Amino acid sequence: MHNIRKISDDLYYIGANDRRITRFENQHPVPNGMSYNSFLLLDEKTVLFETVDKAVGELFLENLAAALGDRKLDYIIVQHVEPDHAALIPRILELHPDIKVVATQKTFTMIGQFFGLDLGDRAVVVKEDDRLNIGKHTLRFLMAPMVHWPEVMVTYDETGKRLFSADAFGTFGAINGDLYADEYDVDFDLLPEARRYYTNIVGKYGRQVLALLDKVAKLELEMVLPLHGPLLRKDLHYYIDKYSKWASYTPEEKGIVIAYASVYGNTEKAAELLAAKLADLGEKNIRVFDVSAWHFSYIVSECFKYDRLVFASVTFNMEIYPAMETLLLELRAHNMQNRDVAVIENGSWAPQSGKKIRELLAEMKDMRVIDSEISIRSAMTHSDEAALGDLAKALAAK
Ligand code: FEO
């Protein structure tokens, strides 16, 4: 049995879903699973684009065998060596010993590191703008270092006007039957997880993503084929615009993320009160997160989406509460920048969290901290409540 999908007369989807995975990269929750996309182009030469994660290796091999029929594989194009795509390379080399492997020089180094393989004369090293003719189709290779690893390239099929985009334009979540993004409710079903995927996996490398987008802008494009999630064939400008905003750390829209860390509910109360005061001032898109209840990846994603951020934390062991500190470190790691920010601290005898949060924010670029030092001693007082009102006005004025 196999589950291959026809994209065109000569191009097939042969990837697979993993719905048993709980954490992508052993870190990010993926309640909707993951898809690992692989494609087979059957021209005069046969070309495989990537393999898959080992979790779906057998499904992939079944699909590949069915799609190939009695043909042999001539080429595998390896755009990215991360094992969620490259795990089956050794098996492909065993099954197709004459195959040529097309990749960047760095990729071959990493294939050696991961798999102990020296490909010798099976290696075809490509550089920017190199082309490979395989019959009807000509494939052009564009370097995309740090989207998401240094060896990455993407491949433009000049004949089919398709971009095989590696991790770019991917998303968390399995493919639910429909292969194309336009068959989903994009804003509801796809975009939140595409944003969470981008911001947490590639978000650090905005400059490099913008460099790739510059190259993409010059291509005549009919389809984008990422390595995770549905394929894009309509409204490409919509996705490219989202990527441009994320990569340039530009908020998508006005809104306020309030992330709080609370032990006995007093800091939580301050966060809720601030949210209510903001709503009274007419603010929309107020997103309140208990950092202990939410995995940081969801909050990082929302911080990329909106223009104002509030961090409210109890002091814990003379530090920022651990889950809040993790969130801030993740934001710093992903180059979060260009936001208006407010800080609220709580401490029963020696409040420290505000100072420490500000120190972390100072290590990020252009995080404009609103001059409002709210330092709650255990539980809010009337003057704290008044200060929250002032803070709400200051945030609303941004
Ligand atoms: Fe989907 Fe960076 O691998």
List keywords for this structure.
single chain, 398 residues, alpha/beta, Metallo-beta-lactamase, Chain A, Rossmann fold, 2 domains, seven-stranded mixed beta sheet, 34% helix, binds MU-OXO-diiron
Mean pLDDT: 97
Structural class: alpha/beta
Please tell me the CATH architecture of the largest domain by its name: 4-Layer Sandwich
Helix content: 25-40%
Structure description:
The protein has 398 residues and is of the alpha/beta class. The protein has 2 domains: 5-247, 4-Layer Sandwich (Metallo-beta-lactamase, Chain A), CATH 3.60.15.10; 253-397, Flavodoxin domain (Rossmann fold), CATH 3.40.50.360. It is 34% helix and 26% strand. It contains 12 helices and 23 strands. The strands form 5 sheets. A 7-stranded mixed β-sheet has the order 1-2-7-8-9-10-11. Helix 1 (57-68) links the parallel strand 8 and strand 9 (75-77). Helix 5 packs across helix 9. The longest helix has 17 residues, at 186-202. The model has no long low-confidence stretch (mean pLDDT 97). The structure holds MU-OXO-diiron. MU-OXO-diiron binds at residues 80, 82, 84-85, 148, 167, 227-228.
What is the topology?
Elements: E1 5-8, E2 11-13, E3 16-18, E4 23-24, E5 28-29, E6 34-36, E7 39-42, E8 46-49, H1 57-68, E9 75-77, H2 83-86, H3 89-95, E10 100-103, H4 105-115, E11 123-125, E12 131-133, E13 138-143, E14 153-157, E15 162-166, H5 186-202, H6 206-217, E16 223-226, H7 236-247, E17 253-261, H8 266-280, E18 286-290, H9 296-305, E19 306-316, E20 319-320, H10 322-333, E21 337-346, H11 353-362, E22 365-369, E23 374-376, H12 382-396
Parallel strand pairs: 8-9, 9-10, 10-11, 15-16, 17-18, 17-19, 19-21, 21-22, 21-23
Antiparallel strand pairs: 1-2, 2-7, 3-6, 4-5, 7-8, 12-13, 13-14, 14-15, 19-20
Helix pairs in contact: 5-9, 6-7, 8-12, 9-10
Bound molecules: MU-OXO-diiron.
